[in-house]
Specification:
231 residues, alpha+beta, Rossmann fold, OB fold (Dihydrolipoamide Acetyltransferase, E2P), 5-stranded antiparallel β-sheet, 8 helices, 32% helix, elongated
Length: 231
């Protein structure tokens, strides 16, 4: 691997693991807790961004990839650096100097990158990757019934059950495409599943989904629903 060859010039750096897919990458990062990861985006099973989202405290990242369709600005803003394949030893050295100057880049920097990419990536907008116990689960967005706020997490309700993702409701409100509306500060619903909207207490409503769920709708949420549903 070219990266490993170039790293030989940096005696203070130790390569602890090489991984061929995102699942193996998650396991290795959890086990070794590296300061720096060289990451491709296009990988089998899950992509590089989805892999990083599964890490509790993601490390500093230098992207080494041929993929440049949508995220170059995000790289420039939030990653330590990005190397577009094929890259030279000189370009690699420049990226390493940036890392060494920053030393351990703040985890918030990597998290900011993930948020920026989620807002612009069609792949990220089509599915959610999360950890369920010791397993990695991929949930297609259309299969989701609704999202529910749960402290520092969001609970994702599906036919298979509910799953937790460490994101904010605001994040999902920003990145979700059509068919999802935030009807309450604690709920984002799949409008394709609505069967009825009933009045409830002062200035509020209840929405009934075809799954049987009955969820509160705030005054502002009702206005959004009426606009989306054309009622």
């Amino acid at each position: 691997m070219m990266v490993k060859e170039y790293l030989a010039a940096y005696p203070g750096m130790e390569v602890v693991q090489e991984c061929n897919d995102g699942f193996a990458g998650v396991k290795a990062i959890q086990q070794y807790q590296p300061d720096l990861v060289f990451l491709d985006i296009q990988m089998p099973k899950i992509n590089g961004f989805e892999m990083l989202e599964l890490i509790e405290n993601p490390p500093a990242v230098i992207f080494a990839t041929a993929f440049e369709e949508f995220a170059i600005k995000a790289f420039e803003t939030h990653a330590v650096d990005y190397l577009l394949k094929p890259f030279s030893k000189e370009r690699f050295d420049k990226a390493m100097q940036k890392f060494l100057q920053l030393q351990k880049a703040k985890p918030e920097q990597t998290q900011a990158l993930l948020d920026a990419v989620s807002a612009s990536s069609p792949i990220q907008a089509s599915r959610i990757v999360l950890k369920d116990g010791g397993k990695i689960k991929i949930i297609p967005i259309p299969s989701i019934h609704y999202f529910e706020a749960a402290d520092d997490y969001v609970k994702i309700h599906t036919q298979e059950g509910a799953f937790l993702k460490k994101k904010t409701m605001q994040h999902f409100e920003d990145v979700l495409q059509q068919n999802f509306v935030r009807v309450h500060r604690s709920y984002i619903i799949n409008t394709q599943l609505i069967t009825r909207i009933d009045p409830y207490e002062k200035d509020s409503h209840l929405v009934l989904l075809s799954t049987g769920a009955r969820l509160p709708v705030s005054k502002a949420g009702y206005a959004k629903l009426k606009e989306v549903l054309g009622i």
